[in-house]
Please model this.
Amino acid sequence: MFQNVVALYGVPRSGTSWLGQILDSCPDAVFRFQPLFSYRFKDRIKLDSTGEEIEEFFQELYRENEDEFLNQIDKRKSGVYPSFEKKEASPSILAYKEGRYCYTIPLLLQRYEKIHIIGIVRNPYDVLESWINAPSEYKPEWDIYKEWDLATSKNEYRPENYFGYYKWKEFLKLNADMQKKYPDRFRTVRYEDLEEDAESTVKELFDFAGMPFTEQTRSFLLDSQRITVDSIYGVYRQKGQERKRTYYLPEDIKERIASDLKYFDTAKQFGY
Model:
């Protein structure tokens, strides 16, 4: 049975897939993909969930090793995601990633002491541009001038969805608050720092989360930045190589974001 939980949260298109697979590369961790979005555990954590109910959820999640979505079996078979070697005995760490349900972070930190949470942030321009170039996430008939801020067509006013600039700001503020309140159990990582110096950044994250850094992780970090697998959800991209883009964020929207960021102190805290 696991001894501690490591959770990764970020808004969509901010690098959670790559960092999630980095966490999965730890031989002493079992990794699950977006459990609160899965059919198996949909909306399992609620605002009134007790510590005992959270513990029960994590125990079930740890044991669920055959669910195709939670384990992303199709992506591993196709080579979009790697397959990692694990300890023969039961791994002691349960790790998972979520690109939604970020509002559960304060609840988990308050009611479950065995969890360490990593928040990944990325500059809003790349987040939005990556979103509008993801066919499964952004419909081409949508008007970016109506969607870039509140993303109402995608979010559908559901609190678990974090698309658009407004929700990006909300998540950034949440990171700042959680770092201040739970400095020993919450850590923010910038996608840009991870991309620039992956090994040093990951070593610091693993040390924070109590995860051993092994040759398997080092090897994946090297491979993930020197080869490319063409997929919108891929975790292999040669360093410095941009993904193919069809749609570009209009310059006047970028200007509006830049103007807003000047007065958003939290963004300055994270270097944006």
Q: What stands out?
A: Residues 4-269 form a domain with the Rossmann fold fold (CATH 3.40.50.300).
